[in-house]
Specification:
This protein is 40% helix and 16% strand. It is of the alpha+beta class. A three-stranded mixed sheet has the order 1-2-3. Strand 2 and strand 3 (33-38) form a beta hairpin. The longest helix has 10 residues, at 41-50.
Protein backbone atom coordinates (compact mmCIF):
# COMPACT_ATOMS: atom_id res chain seq x y z
CA UNK A 1 0.00 0.00 0.00
CA UNK A 2 1.31 3.40 -0.79
CA UNK A 3 -0.84 5.31 1.68
CA UNK A 4 -2.49 4.57 5.02
CA UNK A 5 -4.94 7.12 6.42
CA UNK A 6 -7.31 7.35 9.35
CA UNK A 7 -11.07 7.35 8.76
CA UNK A 8 -11.27 10.91 10.12
CA UNK A 9 -8.60 12.01 7.64
CA UNK A 10 -10.69 10.55 4.81
CA UNK A 11 -13.58 12.74 5.97
CA UNK A 12 -11.41 15.86 6.21
CA UNK A 13 -9.28 15.31 3.10
CA UNK A 14 -11.46 13.25 0.78
CA UNK A 15 -10.21 14.93 -2.40
CA UNK A 16 -6.56 14.18 -1.60
CA UNK A 17 -7.32 10.60 -0.54
CA UNK A 18 -9.49 10.08 -3.63
CA UNK A 19 -6.67 11.30 -5.90
CA UNK A 20 -4.20 8.97 -4.17
CA UNK A 21 -6.56 6.02 -4.70
CA UNK A 22 -6.41 6.62 -8.47
CA UNK A 23 -2.74 5.61 -8.31
CA UNK A 24 -2.77 2.84 -5.69
CA UNK A 25 -5.13 1.37 -3.08
CA UNK A 26 -5.44 3.48 0.07
CA UNK A 27 -5.66 1.66 3.40
CA UNK A 28 -8.19 3.24 5.77
CA UNK A 29 -7.83 2.66 9.50
CA UNK A 30 -10.20 3.35 12.37
CA UNK A 31 -8.59 3.40 15.83
CA UNK A 32 -5.46 1.76 14.38
CA UNK A 33 -7.33 -1.13 12.79
CA UNK A 34 -7.66 -1.51 9.00
CA UNK A 35 -11.36 -1.29 8.17
CA UNK A 36 -11.47 -0.54 4.44
CA UNK A 37 -9.53 0.16 1.27
CA UNK A 38 -10.29 2.85 -1.27
CA UNK A 39 -9.42 1.79 -4.82
CA UNK A 40 -9.99 3.24 -8.28
CA UNK A 41 -12.92 2.05 -10.36
CA UNK A 42 -10.50 0.32 -12.77
CA UNK A 43 -8.82 -1.58 -9.93
CA UNK A 44 -12.17 -2.61 -8.47
CA UNK A 45 -13.45 -3.84 -11.85
CA UNK A 46 -10.28 -5.90 -12.38
CA UNK A 47 -10.61 -7.40 -8.90
CA UNK A 48 -14.32 -8.13 -9.35
CA UNK A 49 -13.74 -9.77 -12.74
CA UNK A 50 -11.21 -12.16 -11.22
CA UNK A 51 -13.27 -12.94 -8.11
CA UNK A 52 -14.29 -16.59 -7.97
CA UNK A 53 -17.90 -17.35 -7.34
CA UNK A 54 -19.28 -20.66 -6.09
CA UNK A 55 -22.21 -22.34 -7.81
CA UNK A 56 -23.73 -25.77 -8.20
CA UNK A 57 -22.40 -28.04 -10.93
CA UNK A 58 -26.00 -28.52 -12.05
CA UNK A 59 -26.07 -24.83 -13.01
CA UNK A 60 -23.39 -25.36 -15.66
CA UNK A 61 -24.53 -25.33 -19.27
CA UNK A 62 -23.86 -28.27 -21.58
CA UNK A 63 -21.22 -26.16 -23.35
CA UNK A 64 -19.45 -25.42 -20.04
CA UNK A 65 -19.52 -29.12 -19.10
CA UNK A 66 -18.06 -29.99 -22.51
CA UNK A 67 -15.27 -27.42 -22.05
CA UNK A 68 -14.41 -28.90 -18.64
CA UNK A 69 -14.38 -32.47 -19.92
CA UNK A 70 -12.09 -31.50 -22.82
CA UNK A 71 -9.71 -29.39 -20.70
CA UNK A 72 -6.15 -30.66 -20.34
CA UNK A 73 -3.35 -29.71 -17.97
CA UNK A 74 -0.31 -28.37 -19.86
CA UNK A 75 2.54 -30.89 -19.89
CA UNK A 76 4.89 -28.65 -17.92
CA UNK A 77 2.32 -28.38 -15.10
CA UNK A 78 1.15 -31.99 -15.09
CA UNK A 79 2.16 -34.25 -12.19
CA UNK A 80 1.32 -37.64 -10.81
CA UNK A 81 -0.08 -38.13 -7.33
CA UNK A 82 2.60 -40.72 -6.63
CA UNK A 83 5.28 -38.05 -7.12
CA UNK A 84 4.05 -36.09 -4.12
CA UNK A 85 2.54 -38.66 -1.78
CA UNK A 86 2.97 -42.25 -0.76
CA UNK A 87 -0.35 -43.51 -2.10
CA UNK A 88 0.22 -46.92 -0.51
CA UNK A 89 0.76 -45.52 2.99
CA UNK A 90 -1.58 -46.93 5.63
CA UNK A 91 -3.40 -44.55 7.92
CA UNK A 92 -4.64 -45.74 11.30
CA UNK A 93 -7.10 -43.86 13.43
Amino acid sequence: MSLTVSASEVQRQFGRVHDAAMKAPVEIQNHGRTTAYLVSADTFEQMWASYRRAFFVGELSDEEMKMISEARVPEDLDWELTEEFDVDAKVTL
